[in-house]
Amino acid sequence: MNTITKEFVAKMMDHAVLKPAMTDEDIRKNAAMCVAKGVGDLCVRPTDAALAAKLVKGSGTTVAVVVGFPHGASRSEVKALEAKLAIEDGANELDMVMNIGKFLSGDFDYVKRDIGAVVAVAKPKGVLVKVIQESCLLTLEQVAHACELSIAAGADFVKTSTGFNGDGATVEQVEVMLATCAGRAKVKPSGGIRDWDRAVMFLKMGVGRLGVGSADKILDGAPAADGY
């Protein structure tokens, strides 16, 4: 485990700029903050990918783009195209939403193929794929099963939440994800990480990334008032 410095915590953060009403100016402000504070990754909507990539170019901050966001119900062909275009726009990573409805329907082959369609586009380009399973809608047993499907499909990370549906990451969910993945994929808790102590707690558990919406406030030691 690395020493928990402000620099280390910043590097482990995926700072999300995903709310519907966010403007180009919001992307510019958040990109500048990420670069200034050494935040590891800026996570944006598909139409913001090219701008974000341009703004952080040459810095230590990478760009993640969401795919099938926020409900996961886009067709697999659409998710694959969205992934391809995001990579062309400069995405280093993709945060895709699992097809939650198909998973809850028991159509696990579909879910695995759906994730695999994005992985097939991303892997040859060296682009990481994180699978958002929306853990708040699942039992802990289902969380473990979703992790297995993601790993089988070739994903690099499993992620708890979009931040748009119910509560964010819980300790219990993250424990199950870490135990299930057992080093085969990394774990990204997201949602509800709004202060330094909670961020550090998850890092000490062994997660590979933190999904946050207030990287600046967390790093400055002030709890975020609301949001992701």
Question: Secondary-structure element sequence?
Answer: HEHEHEHEHHEHEHEHEH
**Rg on CA atoms, Å:** 16 Å
Shape call? globular
Question: What is the share of helical residues?
Answer: 40-55%
| CATH-defined superfamily | Aldolase class I
Terminal CA distance:
26 Å
Q: Residue ranges: pLDDT <50 for 5 or more in a row?
A: none
Look at the structure and give the CATH class: Alpha Beta
Kindly identify the CATH topology.
Answer: TIM Barrel
Tell me the strand order in the biggest sheet.
7-6-5-4-3-2-1-8
Topology:
Layout: H1 6-11, E1 13-17, H2 24-37, E2 41-44, H3 49-56, E3 62-67, H4 76-88, E4 93-97, H5 100-104, H6 108-122, E5 128-132, H7 140-152, E6 157-159, H8 171-181, E7 186-188, H9 196-205, E8 210-212, H10 215-219
Parallel strand pairs: 1-2, 1-8, 2-3, 3-4, 4-5, 5-6, 6-7
Helix pairs in contact: 2-3, 4-6, 7-8
Walkthrough of the structure:
This protein is α/β, with parallel strands linked by helices. It has ten helices and eight strands. An eight-stranded parallel sheet has the order 7-6-5-4-3-2-1-8. The radius of gyration is 16 Å and the shape is globular.
Summarize this structure briefly.
With 228 residues, the chain is an alpha/beta fold. The protein has 10 helices and 8 strands. The mean pLDDT is 95.
Pick out its properties:
alpha/beta, 10 helices, 8 strands, TIM Barrel, eight-stranded parallel β-sheet, single chain, 228 residues
